[in-house]
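Hi support team,

I'm filing this because I wasn't sure whether my run with zinc ion finished correctly. The job status page said complete, but I'd like someone to confirm that the output block is well-formed before I use it downstream. Pasting the exact inputs I used:
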Amino acid sequence: MVKQCTLLLKLSFITGLLISQALSAKTLLSEQFFQGALIVGKTSPDNKVTLNGKSIKVSKNGDYALGFSRDEKNNSELIILSPNGAAEKRILKPLKREYNIQRVEGIAKSIMNPNKKANIRVGEDNKKIKAARKVDSNLTAFAKGFVAPIEGIITGVYGSQRYYNGVPKTPHYGLDYAGKTGDPVKSPADGTILMFVPDMFYSGGTMIIDHGHGVSSTFLHLSDSYVSVGDKVSKGQLVAAVGASGRATGPHLDWRINWFNMRLDPELVLKLKPLK
Ligand SMILES: [Zn+2]
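And here is everything the job wrote out:
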């Protein structure tokens, strides 16, 4: 029975591929379909794009963005509809990844459960972060490639997760770079500064930069910001300084990539090549 199901799945996947091959001349997609990947597409600007029935913004140049979450298991259905009614369907199958899991036993209850006052502050912080990550601007910087925001040794990766006393904690979604307080932090792509808060409860100095179509960068634990909300910044421009603010064990940069409220892997984003 299990074997049959697998075979059926494979067959439907192959059918999906055949359909897309027949019509795919105009549609380009970046090729890393890993869990946690930002996927960039290019099509004719007057086409309409939907992902699992939800419409996705297409830029004047035909660029669009979508993502796979850390644990995405289901195939996604991408439909590209041209003005003359022709539709192209692509089945995108997420490639499964193994994440680093650590089990830590004997943690005191007080650390496991932060107090009420802290919870209220965390709630306020989260509201600001949520509002920034909802922005769906017309920028297309996400389609032009990214650079690392700092030259430093990578000390933490996307997707890793700790279990305290058997209880899973939220996975780590950032890419951590070692650094000293004051080290320059550059914008990984062109963008607009959406948010800077110097003292969030967990993440300390926190900046969010919009790269367009819901794709944004978040920097955590900053000691300083050199830009203001609303500023346009370019790829490689100095925007902030490394710090150890908030709940950090020492100075480092934690860089995150978001597609709206979905968290994506910055290491995969650095490998993206602009589509031609
Ligand atoms: Zn981190």
